[in-house]
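ABC transporter permease structure dump, as promised
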Amino acid sequence: MHFVARFLRWFGFLALTIFALLLVTFTLTRLSPVDPVLAVVGDHASRSSYEQARRELGLDRSLPEQFLVYVSRVAQGDLGRSSSTGQPVRSDLARTVPATVELATLAILLGAVVGVSLGVASGLRPGSWIDGIARFISLFGYSVPIFWLGLLMLLLFYAALHWAPGPGRLDIAFQYTVAPLTGFVLIDTWLSGQDGAFLDALHHLALPVTLLAFHALAGIARLTRTAILNEVGQEYTVAARAKGASDWRVVFSHVLPNVAGTILTVIALAYVSLLEGAVLTETVFAWPGLGRYLTTAMFAGDVPAILGGTLVIGLCFITINSITDLLVARLDPRIKP
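structure tokens r here:
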């Protein structure tokens, strides 16, 4: 019964959060200076055409009725039609979201491994050379604009040294021959069976993944270091050392289990940040992901595309945070979900 009560409480909070997200996105559509009717019929449409389109869009109804229709359409996967691409927003998102998820997932895996390792080594040896390196990387990662670093990487590794391919996901030789079966370029090139396609995809991923991973590991390393420093002076670690345990044994057997929830939360927040904040990276590297799609939509005043992308990002944020809360509660029984 206790588990059922906790699950119902968690599910109710999740449903309320999603409802609030839908309410916010609906409100934004009504506060937008862009007229959705003109986006459909054009600026030179007649009055009768304007009114007919307004009725078809349901804008002649009351706001509560419009909100119910909006929720119903979203529940059915209908996010409207993009005025800039002429395609359903759902189709555009199905094409662009996998590219961003692939980029962010690879980046967070690399950033988490390096960031946690660096943070543990730094926290275990405060004031040492490894601690100085970790603190410098954290400060540099937070201070340097990501778009400037991305341009610098392209200039150095692509234009000057020719070690990396240019922007995009694939070379022109594979761009139109590899079928986008899943939307994930590594999987699609692997399934295609074409010689060199998978390796070419890896080469194109190298620079943007490294850039995003560096941005993520800066925060992960700093907060991991802080968590380790807060624990290494506790009585249980002193007692473990008194019994003859080495510093690394104390960290891996005693400290890390106690800070695993904190580290997992930091990694989850970094992952969400990469999903919603890869706009500049995708623009610099011409990566056809959600960030670049939203940038184009904002310049074009494409309200359905902007709100559809915002809704997807919000749902990703809610889902990842909810899963993280359950995992943290599982790792640390002191925390109730």
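The chain has a mean pLDDT of 83.
lmk if u need the other ones
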